[in-house]
Amino acid sequence: CIYTLELQQLIDLSTNRPKLAENYTEDTWLKLRDAVGAIQNSTSIKYNLEELYQAVENLCSYKVSPTLYKQLRQVCEDHVQAQIQQFREYPFWGSLDSLSFLKRMNRCWQDHCRQTIMIRSIFLFLDRTYVLQNSLLPSIWDTGLELFRTHIVSDSAVQKRTVDCILEQIEMERNGETVDRSLLRSLLGMLSDLQVYKDSFEERFLIETNRLYAAEGQRLMQERDVPEYLHHVARRLEEENDLMITLETKIICNIPVAGLSTLLDENRVTELALLYQLFNKVKGGLPTLLQFWRDYIKSFGGEIVCTPEKDKDMVQELLDFKDKMDNVAQSCFTRNEGFINAMKEAFETFINKRPNKPAELIAKYVDSKLRAGNKEATEEELERILDKIMIIFRFIHGKDVFEAFYKKDLAKRLLVGKSASVDAEKSMLSKLKHECGAAFTSKLEGMFKDMELSKDIMIQFKQYMQNQSEPSNIELTVNILTMGYWPSYTPMEVHLPPEMVKLQEVFKLFYLGKHSGRKLQWQPTLGHAVLKSEFKEGKKELQVSLFQTLVLLMFNEGEEFSIEEIRTATGIEEGELKRTLQSLACGKARVLNKNPRGKEVEDGDRFNFNYDFKHKLFRIKINQIQMKETVEEQVSTTERVFQDRQYQIDAAVVRIMKMRKTLSHNLLVSELYNQLKFPVKPGDLKKRIESLIDRDYMERDKETPNQYHYVA
């Protein structure tokens, strides 16, 4: 503790220290060498520790670190070499001398460790600058271990005698005598720290153990009857178990648990299982391993979530990482509940380090799996993928962000007919309902309900049309969407052909006749059509969007049009029109010719109908050029979520105050945290409370400003 305190004082010293002379003088080194000698000889140091630390820092600043490091090593080496003779010349006449030898060895080892710590505290600046920057150089502590191992423990005579004496003490205990276990524990720890335990001790220990019990077994079988022999064996096993616990505790505790990262990175399941078994044998071993396991998951997962460059593959990497950690917990950590709970806690921590983005990307990942054209998985595999996604989804705090993006993508799948499987869609909806409750999925369920009701309405509309005196040659299908269920779409006015306008009016008359008081708002951006076309090769059917339909119908009236003429005739917004023309004239199915040729549509381009168009299919789907979701759209979706959150906070505050009438600020905030289902900062809650006070929903107490009253 003294050394730690002194070391902390040295680190915390002010930077305004007096500078030593700029030149590296012999006097400065002699002062440092005297201090090192005093530490090694356990005598008082003549100089102030602060002054010595400052001397080292100045010497390092004047580029003499290599020389200083070599001189320090030499002084330490000379001292360690001088210690070896006392062990070589030590008398060896019996068990008392054996114990005395071990005590001397242990004292020498303990003194060496203490001295090395003290020397390192003085030369800390050297250790943390020059040594740290040179990876081939051992630190001052490692240098101390290396010198002790090289000059004392690796000396063949000293090593043999040390091991002989340890084995002798173990045999004495096996024979019923009392021995100093703490001494044995310390010396075995020394062998382990110096990395000579296996080569110098373990093999001989096993040989001696085998020899002892083989001889004892033969002798006792002849001297004792079976019951006595069995009791002796049980006692021996208990004694050996105590010994093994002593050995294991010291050896296992020296295993570098930090190496767990490497084992996990490389998925070394055999070694991880062995590591768990070893730490399970030691008191306090598993909690240590558990903490490293938790920290590793937070660190590795945090890198996946908090690195924007990995956003494209974030969800897949999270799923793979979760699978990998599940496998380790199951096959290596024997499904230990503590490790499984720690994993869940770590996942929840790191996945919410970056608010909103993981929720958004999980929604998009689900969309990619449920969209038509996803041929990666069978129905069974898709179900397994959705189950895995739900596990990751559980860890997210801001589930309303997921809902906003999921709803937007679901709408596209339903309205454009791009859903891979209705069963898979409803399965995902069921999982979300089970996880988050009926309120979470009510709007999503409403979207499905709208689609089913629309089918029924269209059956009735077709019957209605059959009774009309002037039947239309256009077959109209309409999806009636409840505005509160679906994402909001920006209305876009376009110029429809008279036949379409007339048919819209017929449907409007039909629908409002059945549902008076309702208002219909047409959304042309979501419409699509099937056109019958004639080419030189023959008749074809083109499956196109409504915008593509409006452009193609113009060529019934003329041979060639400029982009300006098409814009005037259709009323389609410029950016949308260019993408539409690009899909018709520059894509795989080029039913229009563009002049001049090119992959992009520019102002001044002219278009004509491609009568020479050929395709092996009769019905051809011409995909609209999809505009990638812009940053503005993502921000807009997120802002809508935040706006909804403000409404929810306001409603929760009013609900609580109406019930409680009077409440302190802290209790109100505590109640809000219990009721709200999304993460929110105290500052945001305070703003909403202030807003409600301004709007006279509540008021502050005149004498206690930190208390609120409900205003009826």
TrEMBL record:
GO terms for biological process: cellular response to UV; developmental process; DNA repair; proteasome-mediated ubiquitin-dependent protein catabolic process; protein ubiquitination; regulation of protein metabolic process; rhythmic process; ribosome biogenesis. Keywords: Biological rhythms, DNA damage, DNA repair, Host-virus interaction, Isopeptide bond, Phosphoprotein, Ubl conjugation, Ubl conjugation pathway. GO terms for molecular function: ubiquitin protein ligase binding. InterPro entries: Cullin, Cullin-like_AB, Cullin_CS, Cullin_homology, Cullin_homology_sf, Cullin_N, Cullin_neddylation_domain, Cullin_repeat-like_dom_sf. GO terms for cellular component: Cul4A-RING E3 ubiquitin ligase complex. It comes from the Eukaryota. Residues 357-585 form the Cullin family profile domain. SUPFAM superfamilies: Cullin homology domain (SSF75632), Cullin repeat-like (SSF74788), Winged helix' DNA-binding domain (SSF46785). Pfam families: Cullin (PF00888), Cullin_AB (PF26557), Cullin_Nedd8 (PF10557). Pathway: Protein modification; protein ubiquitination. Belongs to the cullin family. This is Cullin-4A. It comes from Scophthalmus maximus (Turbot). The gene is CUL4A.
